[in-house]
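Hey, quick one: can you model this chain's 3D structure?
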Amino acid sequence: MRNLINFLIQYSVLFLFLLLEIISFSLIVNYQDYQKSVFLTSSNSVVSGLYKVSNSVVEFFNLRTANDNLSEENTALKNQIIDLQNQMAALQPKVKDDSLNFKVPPQAEYQLISAKVINNSTNKLLNYITINKGSRDGIRVDMGVINDEGAVGIVKNVSDKYAVIIPVLNQKTELSCKFKKSNYTGPLSWDGFDYRFAQLNDIARHVEFSLGDTLVTTGFAGSFPEGVPVGTIENFKMREGEQYYDIKVKLAVNFRTLSHVKIINYLNFEELRDLEKKAEEQ
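Sure thing. Here's the predicted structure for all 282 residues.
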């Protein structure tokens, strides 16, 4: 208590000065119209600025929920588009029983399942991605995974509530892709160095292509539909005495910013796998 009293006595002149300043300012604002209007205008600007900052902070913390909702809505809309495209492409105007007869190609019969990335690595030789959807949501092993940019990877393990994806950034992954212009195919793999790039293999000397050419999925593996973006040709060279190009591909997907993905649910997946297993056993 004594220290507080000594402090007040020591700075009594300063406190008196501040008090008189406040009283003077109050008298000027209350009894001078011009100064009063200036003060009210300035205070309104300050308050509105504070409200704007406050709203920005609230909106920032609500972005995560908004992004999740937008991803779900976007996936639902894309599923509707897929259904409509299949119906329009397969519609037969004349049939014997005068009814609609849809003959959709089996590789086009698929739906998308939206999921959120809850764990992701890009700096290892064997990277993995974990999502918040599992078998109870219809996820199963060997499903292809994409996002709005392009091909992401393939589902490796599934539990009831979660699934683990082997992305393109994993040396165990080999993605079948082709040149969009020429349809010439080759496997894409990752060398474990830069998350932005991968290597296209088995492209022979006679194949014609150029920098910037687009690579897309072939649809051969049964995990991805045909035409999903994979990347673009960043650089290539032919070593002396070699018959195949050394091709560097810039990946379409930025794995460092990956937050939401879509899993491809082929409706004829089980039928295809059972048929292929029977052929292997014979």
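One thing worth noting: Helices lie at 2-10, 12-31, 33-90, 269-281.
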